[in-house]
C-alpha cells in the first residue's frame, strides 16, 4: 500500500514545478500506477507528466497541468482502494480456508456420531467452499 505522505509530497512538488514555476514537464519520483485496471486506459504517471503528454493534453484535450495532476491524484486514490480491497479479500479467503480445515478435522474425528450434525457440518463446508470460489473469481465483491 502507498504511503499517503509520499503521494501528497510528490503531488505538491509536481504542482510547484509545473504550475507555479511553469516548467514544461516534471520527473515523477513518487509511487507509480501498478494496477492493470487503471493502466489499461491511461499511461503511467511519469508518462502523463512528460512534456509531450502535457502539451497534447492542453492542445488536444483542453486539460491544463492542474487537470492532469488531479487525474493522477484520483488514479492513485483508486489504486489505493483496489489494493485495500485485494488485501481484505486475501484475508477473508485465508479465514474461510482455516474454518474449512477446522470443520474437516471435526468431520474426521470419531468423537461425534450424530448423522444430522455431520450433515449440517458438511453443508457448512460446501457453503464456505462456495464463498471462497466466489471471492477468488470476483475479488471486489
Structure, described:
The chain is mainly α and 141 residues long. The protein folds into two domains: 4-82, no CATH class; 86-137. It has six helices and no strands. The protein has helices at 4-20, 36-39, 45-48, 51-61, 65-108, 115-137.
Order of helices and strands: HHHHHH
Radius of gyration: 24 Å
Question: What shape does the CA trace take?
Answer: rod-shaped
Report mean pLDDT, rounded to a whole number: 83
Question: CA-to-CA gap between the ends?
Answer: 20 Å
Q: What is the percent of helical residues?
A: over 70%
Tally the helices: what do you get?
Answer: 6
Structural class label: mainly alpha
- Strand proportion, as a percent range, falls in under 5%
Strand count, sense and barrel status of the largest sheet are: none
| Number of strand elements | 0
In short:
The chain is mainly α and 141 residues long.
Please give a handful of descriptors for the protein shown.
mainly alpha; 6 helices; 141 residues; single chain
Secondary structure topology:
Layout: H1 4-20, H2 36-39, H3 45-48, H4 51-61, H5 65-108, H6 115-137
Helix pairs in contact: 1-5, 5-6
Amino acid at each position: 500500500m502507498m504511503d499517503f505522505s509520499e503521494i501528497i509530497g510528490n503531488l505538491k512538488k509536481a504542482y510547484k514545478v509545473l504550475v507555479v514555476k511553469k516548467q514544461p514537464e516534471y520527473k515523477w519520483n513518487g509511487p507509480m500506477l501498478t494496477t492493470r485496471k487503471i493502466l489499461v486506459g491511461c499511461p503511467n504517471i511519469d508518462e502523463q507528466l512528460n512534456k509531450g503528454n502535457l502539451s497534447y493534453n492542453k492542445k488536444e484535450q483542453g486539460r491544463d497541468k492542474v487537470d492532469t495532476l488531479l487525474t493522477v491524484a484520483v488514479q492513485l486514490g483508486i489504486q489505493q482502494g483496489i489494493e485495500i480491497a485485494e488485501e481484505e479479500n486475501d484475508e477473508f479467503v485465508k479465514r474461510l480456508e482455516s474454518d474449512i480445515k477446522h470443520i474437516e478435522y471435526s468431520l474426521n474425528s470419531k468423537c461425534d456420531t450424530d448423522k444430522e450434525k455431520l450433515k449440517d457440518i458438511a453443508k457448512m463446508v460446501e457453503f464456505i467452499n462456495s464463498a471462497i470460489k466466489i471471492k477468488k473469481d470476483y475479488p471486489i465483491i
